[in-house]
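new request in #modeling-help
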Amino acid sequence: MRRTAPYLLALPGVLWLAAFFIVPIVMTLSVSLQTGNVEQGFQFTWHFANYSDAMRLYHVQFVRSIVYGLIVTGVTFLLAYPMAYWIAFHGGRRKTVYLFLILLPFFVSFVIRTVAWQFILSDNGILLGPLKNLHLLGQDFHVLATSSAVVGGLTYNYLPFMVLPLFVSLERIDPTLVEAANDLYASRIRAFLRVVFPLSIPGVFAGVLLTFVPVAADYISASILGGTSTTMIGNVIQTLYLTNNDYPLASALSFILMAVLTAGVLVYARVLGTQRVYEVASG
Amino acid sequence: MSGAATVTRPGAQPPARAEPRRRPAGRWIAVALGAYTWLMIFYLTAPILVMIAFGFNDTHSRVNLRWQGFTVKWYGKLFDIPDLSAALRNSLLIALFTAVISTVLGTMVGLSLGRYRFRGLAALDLLMFANIAAPELVLGAALLTLFITVQFQRGFLTILVAHVMFTIAYVAVTVRARLAGFDRTLEEAAQDLGADPWATFRKITLPLIFPGILAGALLSFALSIDDFVITNFNSGQTQTFPIWVFGATRVGVPPQVNVMGTLIFLGGVGLAVGNAIAARRRALE
């Protein structure tokens, strides 16, 4: 009984994930090598050309998604680190209050948050309208449909994902270590660079992981805040699946995306060990 | 400041050297960082304030873009758009069913991960990690491939299946975290006193891990009600609240959406604050 208990406990959940997570991903791989169309059906033909077609047609959007991912990850890191640092070392008894305030956006639907930004940034809206009336901005100045709007929206939506793991890793640092560094005549900057920052690296890695992967695969922000020149790979995959019904090409594209992101994650895990990323990521 | 400072007068501050230096940054740096943090908190909450405010906007058309005076009429007309109301109802039902199914399955996986050493533990751990780390886009698109291949009609049921699929691992991780500091001798004591395994679980294990289970249930409910990406791939003609709002962005989002967003926000915040107060009270007892 004791021997089988862990397997029996895990079985229903594992079966669910096998059927609706593992099998679908294997199936995506299979469909990505098929040819055909919706009317006549699809046949498995080892059609590797789907992969070269996917990259030939959509490498622009693919590269754009990776670039947006890198920019947003960099910006959220720069914005988040000082906050996480202050809350961890100077938050006192109100640490949980600050964290709660940072998590408030999660109580509003992702789509509504992005719609709110569309509203704030609209051409004659509450932000740009007054500035235009004061002639601080030209009448044809706009933010929506530019890459700044998309990057800005993504930065907003994923900022808390960066703050939390940074906070967790900074909070674990014993302040006496910094005292020791100061006693040994290290300047504040030197103590930060040589003691605090290295100890917060697991949080940095987890934050980068939690931000980069979903940002690169996001398409809500590009749909609502962007235009035709800011289309991301997620928009392409969604259109191929739901509008064009070109399942082989869509599967090839999402498999490439998954492979690239998984490779990134594995490199991370290799550098750091899954357990530690996992610990920090899950609090 | 040099010689006189060493003479301690009544009520004077003790010399600065004697103060414990707990805070690594200097005072002015700390003040600046504090101000910066509050500015960022404002940035994070600004869209929420806009959403709440424009639920009170006295607009006359469906387009809710310019401030036209204060009104509470949208709270009375909350369910005037039948499609939107149906979408909200779907979202709430799916989130509820998801929370129930994922909490049961996820808690079992979490117990397995947190309480036993067995062959396959690392693989199970990796499965949970992969499920959480995989981008929603990939999860949603892959599941759609399955439903297309087996020609299963997409709708309410496929959304529910999808939501359970991406929330089980979150519950499992939450329950496992709760088991981390679990004292196994309590269970052994119960069994020494003649309790069978089921009674031990019900009377000892369950009450101890209950906060973890509750957190997992709330988390899966919240993830489900907010999900757009995975739902969009697997919803067919069925609409949920985020799907409806996304569709409405092209023609203008009506104020009812602001009101529903506000009510969901207040409900969530209320629940979280209530939970935190209850936890603090338990900790004090």
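bot summary: Residues 1-21 of chain B have pLDDT under 50 and may be disordered.
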